[in-house]
């Protein structure tokens, strides 16, 4: 695993974009659900030339994968070998492969093997200099915002997360283990995890929504530390109360107070309403991730 992590760092430095998703990196380090596989490509002398993560799920629907080739081993057929192995693992099922950064080499390989774009994920960014450092958003009567309490708020948050992202292919299916792994990460900070409650949170109160922020260390998303709107979700029954804007303002102010200069977020390109909203809030398109799909 140390060799794979070193390869990921080298690819990030060379391409200016992280080659794997957070989920793939966590599963590399901690394992994952049944049906997952780690695939290594090595040179004849044993040097690591590439890595892939395959997710087979429950054996139905599309299989998914991500892979990266070491910068010094590119244009030598390593990517083709990894993709061939991933297709073998997928068998007679459609395969989706994420290409982070939408780099020319990835698009060339995918289209040459008959893959088509199935999903496009935008990374958007904005400066934090113009953020109100002390927002005092107007909240509905009986609603208060508190920070997350590890060991207390997991169940309520998972319930609202599942409802808020019921149609999302990854976010809405998070489990308690998914949450636990992230709470154990060095970047986790409950002071940047804001929850909006109606009533007493310790006495039958109802969680309405949350804004979980994240801070990427230098070298992760660029030479400087960068904040992230990590998860912003509102319960469907609480839509229209202005909680999304209120929680966003509180989270951005927190990131600015940390001394950060920029904040990023991810949104599906075809979610035009959300993209328009973020653009009006000062976010601009920064990078693109593409999910390529091979249909049988």
Automatic annotation (TrEMBL):
The keyword Ribonucleoprotein does not apply. Gene3D superfamilies: 3.40.630.30. Keywords: Acyltransferase, Repeat, Transferase. GO terms for molecular function: mycothiol synthase activity. Its EC number is 2.3.1.189. The keyword Ligase does not apply. Acetyl-CoA binds at residues 232-234, 239-245. It holds the Pfam family Acetyltransf_1. Monomer. Catalyzes the transfer of acetyl from acetyl-CoA to desacetylmycothiol (Cys-GlcN-Ins) to form mycothiol. This is Mycothiol acetyltransferase. It comes from Geodermatophilus sabuli. The gene is mshD.
């Amino acid at each position: 695993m140390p060799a794979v992590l070193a390869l990921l760092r080298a690819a990030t430095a060379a391409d200016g974009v992280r080659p794997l998703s957070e989920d793939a990196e966590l599963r590399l380090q901690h394992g994952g659900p049944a049906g997952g596989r780690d695939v290594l490509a090595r040179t004849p002398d044993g040097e690591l030339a590439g890595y892939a993560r395959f997710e087979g799920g429950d054996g139905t629907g599309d299989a998914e994968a991500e892979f990266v080739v070491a910068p010094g081993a590119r244009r030598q057929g390593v990517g083709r070998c990894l993709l061939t192995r991933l297709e073998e693992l997928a068998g007679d099922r459609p395969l989706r492969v994420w290409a982070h950064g939408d780099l020319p080499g990835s698009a060339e390989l995918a289209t040459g093997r008959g893959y088509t774009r199935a999903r496009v994920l935008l990374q958007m960014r904005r400066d934090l200099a113009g953020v109100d450092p002390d927002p005092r958003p107007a909240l509905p009567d009986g609603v208060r915002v508190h920070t997350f309490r590890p060991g207390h708020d997991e169940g309520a948050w998972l319930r609202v997360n599942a409802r808020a992202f019921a149609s999302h292919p990854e976010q809405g299916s998070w489990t308690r283990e998914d949450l636990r792994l992230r709470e154990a990460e060095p970047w986790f900070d409950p002071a940047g995890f804001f929850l909006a409650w109606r009533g007493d949170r310790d006495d039958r109160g109802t969680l309405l929504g949350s804004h979980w922020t994240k801070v990427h260390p230098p070298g992760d998303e660029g030479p400087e530390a960068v904040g992230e709107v990590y998860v912003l979700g509102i319960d469907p029954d609480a839509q229209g109360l202005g909680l999304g804007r209120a929680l966003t303002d509180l989270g951005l102010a927190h990131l600015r107070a940390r001394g950060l200069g920029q904040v990023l977020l991810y949104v599906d390109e075809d979610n035009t309403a959300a993209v328009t909203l973020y653009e009006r809030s000062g976010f601009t398109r920064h990078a693109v991730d593409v999910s390529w799909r091979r249909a049988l």
